[in-house]
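Sequence in, structure out. First:
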Amino acid sequence: MDFKHFDTIIDARTPSEFAEDHVPGAVSAPVLDDAQRAEVGTLYKQVSPFEAKKLGAALIARNVARHVEELWKQKEKGWKPLVYCWRGGKRSGAMAHILREIGWDAQTLPGGYKAYRRWVVQELEKKPGDLEYIVVHGPTGSGKSRLLAALAKAGGQVLDLEALAAHRGSVLGGLPDRPQPSQKMFESLLLKEISALERDRPVYVEGESKKIGQLQVPEALIARMRASPCLRLDTDTETRVTLLLQEYEFFLKNPGSLYQQLDCLVSLHGREKIADWKALATAGAWREFVARLLVEHYDPAYRRSSHRNFARLPEARAVRIASADEAAFAAAAKALLARAPVAA
């Protein structure tokens, strides 16, 4: 699984298999598309393996020829690709054979995607324990994601789980222009990020719950985070409202989507309170709407979950966020990195 020794990682599986999960950075070059694979499989079961192989060979030859012409025609002789399919058998083997006959040093991944997937699961049980974390806390809208971005820009080590999960972690946290990846793809991306981090420097990470949207954070990582030292952002309510209005601008332009999300909270707050919130949004009273949502929903939920799940939060160092400006987050990040790391 040491992929850096190859110039290109080629996923020879179908587009739907690739969409669910793949080696990060891999190129999709299916030897059979979804419809073709279904056609060959049906022929194999209903007619004969021999007829299925004849059809499959013709389709694979045409598809690989197209990939050579469209994707790899300009590659030099020294190009070294790694090809994988589901089990590392016929599909990747057929493509690698053709590439080797051209003159390229094409290799296949032993065991294919199934072996890769087992490796990801095993690594995510071990690697999170190799790192030291500093967990950034603060109620919704306090600027945790902004601080992580500022820390990364200033040279700190950051693990941004919400960016990997394409979700901000709250009831309104879905990103309108970016669906969440599958659980498997999230874990592939997470392992890639963790593997690139240095052991001798602390890793700043946001204090998440076990789920980010529909995705589960691996148990080994969440356990390690919950045992780690913490920072607590001190951000006043007006600044939090401003930050949230910036982050959730989509809902200001599409209140219908906002109302659907608020309806998910009826069981917690009752229809009357939800109707009050909707009335504020309908009237365009956005700052009052956000302030009430913070006080009546987000802040109580944060107090219940954070202190229950993060034992070291009471001893957290406070970090003042002076305003919603980027300069305020840059200054906070610079001050944090200039100080000695929090003791693990």
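Second:
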Amino acid sequence: MAGVPAELLYSKEHEWVALEGDVATVGITDYAQSSLGDIVYVELPRVGVTLAQFANIGVIESVKAVSDIFTPVGGEVIGINDAIDGDPALVNREPYGVGWLFKVKLADVGQRDELMTAAQYERLISEA
């Protein structure tokens, strides 16, 4: 399993957030993709939809299970990763890279205070 990138923020539901100003890129962590196994389908929100922080916004299906995706940040969806439609296993291969899920224009940048640092997230998964 890959390390936990220090520059990202994390949710207790195992999503990561990369912030650039008021735009957040969201994906699932290496821990999450490893727990799920081979991912075969990802349902993402539509561009233009407004999401509430921590809301259930889609599903990830693997050969082992179907899991809900929760958004760690709220705001307007401004992009989705179309590449995972044709190759959902990108999420397994590069969860912190080309396997990202969607981008959100934040409703409130203060939402970052509700997320975990890499060190806090590492503690969470070490106790799992």
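Remark: Residues 74 and 84 are 22 Å apart (CA to CA).
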